[in-house]
Every structure is written in C-alpha cells, then in structure tokens.
Design a protein that fits this description.
The longest helix is centred in the first third of the chain and has 36 residues, at about 30-65. The chain is flat and about 90 Å long. It starts with a helix and ends in a 10-residue tail after the last helix. Strands 5-4-6-7 form a four-stranded antiparallel sheet, covered by helices on one side. Strands 9-11-10 form a three-stranded mixed sheet. Helix content is about 50%, strand content about 15%. The chain is an alpha+beta fold.
Length: about 350
C-alpha cells in the first residue's frame, strides 16, 4: 500500500473516532439479553393472538348464519379453535405454552359466542384427549388435524364426542356440529390495509384489522370478500381470462403478437359488476350475522378518504372503486335490508328472474 492511501485511511479513522459515542452504558449480560428476547417474543405472540381472536370472533357468525347463501360450499364446525405447542414456530413455543397453556395434545384456544362449542360448555384451555374414543392428534398441525377429524365425524351424521381434560379433571361431551360457509377466514401477516378472496378462503391482512375501527367495519370487509367467493367471481374471472387467452393464441397463429392483450382485457370484463355484486351480497352476509349495516357505506367512504390517489394503483382501495354510484348502491342495499328486517322477511339477496 502506498503512503498516500495509508495516510488517507488514518485521517478517516481519526475523524470517525471523533464522532463516536462518548458515554459508557451499563454492561448487559447474556442472561439479561435472553430475558429481553423472551419478553419481545411473548409480546409479539400476544399481539398476533389478539388479532386472530378478533378475526375469529367476527368471522364465526358471518360464516355460520350466512351458510344458506353459500350453497353447497358448507362444512360442519363446532365454533372453536384448537392448537398444540408444536403448532407454533420453535422460538414461540415457550410463549405459547405460557399464554395459551398448550401442550403436546391439542387445546381449545378460543370458543365463539353462540357456537355449538359454547353451548356444550367447552372452554379455552380445555385439553382434547380423544375424539370418538381415539387419541387426539399430536405434534405439528394437531389443531388443524383435529378440526378435520371433527368435520369427518360430523359428515357421517354423528355428533363428535370429545374427551377433554380441564384442570386435571376429565369428562366427555358430545357436540352437534353446525353448518358454516366452507371459506375459512384467515389472518395474513402483511401490514397492508388489504383483504382478498381466492375462491377457497378469505384472507384479511393485519393492517386491515388496525384500520377497521370496530367489529362492524371488519365484518363489512369479511362479508364483501366472502361474497366474491360465494358468487364464484374468481372462477368466472378465470374463465374470462381463459377465453381471452384463446383469442391471443388464435391471433398468434395468424402472425399477430397481441402480447396477451385479449387475456388481460377479458380479466377486466364485469370487474366493476363483480365488485358491485360483492357489495350487495356482502351486506346480506353482515346483516344475517346480526350487525347493523347502516354504517357500512361510511366505512367504504373512509377507505376512499384514506387512499384518494388509489386510482391505477395496486391494493384494496385500488380494486374497490370509490364512485358516487357505488356509495349510492350501498345506501340502497341498506334500505332494502332494513325494509326486509322490518317486515320480518328472510335476509336473502334478490335474484334476477
């Protein structure tokens, strides 16, 4: 190394040294670092569990009371969430054990109000020892496997019999399952103000839970996305794209490169109509669950105010148009629902003759 670069490095080191911290902090030992890591993991898991609990609490009555609007896409359920220690990532298992009391066997994490599980007396922290006389699933995925096993028993026309342990005392309870829409509502870890339906489930991002000020606003989001699924919008859009792609292929065979233009355009066909229908049917899902839908239009107005420049962008606000026609349509739907409620009529969307 030449003298000039070496001198420059020495000068830089001297200058940087003058900008370094000058105070001496108290030393932190390894035990304290481990304890702080434990606290942070416990706090992170606690906040996640609170979001999951809120989403389940709001979604359950929408899925249960909206079952008649989901046609053949229904499944039997008890209205309870289950999990074992192994259902959590290794670094969060200690926190899960402390916060939820979970162990190797699946435990009840949450019971929905008004659900078959609640009516049967099931409680959070109950340990499920066996189902229909067979040991309950253990290990990773135990909670999901138990739910699937319960649904299988219920589909056979029998009330699932759970052998549970509570505070060391064991008991057996038969719980008749209830039909719910077979579109699970799941929590998405992203912080964006967004939610989406994919034809199989409804995903609500954590950012949306923070944006939704109360359960009614969250219910409106769930109902809207559930309507996309129940009305087969994703399947219909996929079919439209396929037809457009066929036109692209035919054009390519004649030497014309459309760069997928027909497929892209076909995917947009009826997109506004699908959104309007999801607004309409979605409010019926919300009303059937017992929520007052009169404030629903204001939620969508607040969404529009939060993203005034969403036109042409990606995300929830961009795909849900904020037009006067939309808000007037929502208001008309609210009037229709309230009129049916006043007349004691069934809360079901009107179908074209």
């Amino acid at each position: 190394m030449s003298k000039r670069p070496a001198a420059a490095l020495a000068l830089a080191a001297t200058l940087l040294g003058g900008c370094a911290p000058v105070t001496q902090r108290p030393p932190v030992d390894e035990r304290a670092l481990a304890e702080e890591t434990r606290k942070q993991r416990e706090l992170a898991l606690q906040e996640l569990l609170e979001d999951q609990a809120r989403l389940f609490r709001v979604a359950w009555p929408i899925l249960a009371r909206g079952a008649p609007l989901c046609g053949e896409r229904v499944r039997p359920a008890l209205g309870a969430r289950f999990a074992s220690r192994a259902d959590f990532a290794k670094e969060f298992r200690e926190a899960a054990e402390k916060l939820l009391g979970v162990g190797e066997e699946p435990s009840v994490v949450q019971v929905a109000e008004g659900s078959p599980a609640q009516r049967a007396g099931l409680r959070a922290r109950d340990v499920v020892v066996a189902l229909d006389g067979r040991p309950a699933p253990r290990g990773e995925g135990a909670g999901r496997k138990l739910v699937e096993a319960i649904a299988k028993v219920a589909k056979e026309g029998r009330a699932p019999v759970l052998h549970v342990r509570r505070a060391g005392v064991e008991s057996t309870v038969a719980i008749p399952a209830e039909p719910v829409c077979d579109y699970p509502v799941v929590l998405h870890p992203a912080d964006a103000i967004n939610a989406f339906a994919d034809g199989r489930q409804v995903a609500v991002m954590r950012g949306m839970l923070r944006f939704a000020r109360d359960d009614l606003e969250l219910a409106v989001v769930i109902g809207h996305e559930l309507a996309h699924n129940s009305m087969k919008h994703i399947e219909k859009q996929t079919g439209n794209v396929l037809l457009g792609t066929i036109l692209d292929i035919l054009a390519a065979a004649r030497g014309v490169n459309t760069q997928g233009a027909f497929g892209n355009l076909a995917g947009l066909v009826f997109s506004k109509e699908f959104e309007a229908e999801a607004d309409y049917v979605g409010l019926y899902f919300v009303a059937r669950a017992g929520f007052d839908v009169s404030r629903a239009p204001n939620f969508w107005r607040r969404m529009a105010a939060a993203s005034p420049g969403a036109i042409g962008r990606q995300g929830f606000a961009a795909s849900h148009p904020s037009t006067p026609e939309r808000f007037l349509g929502l208001e008309k739907t609210v009037e229709e629902i309230r009129a049916k409620q006043a007349a004691g009529r069934e809360l079901a969307p009107e179908v074209r003759p």
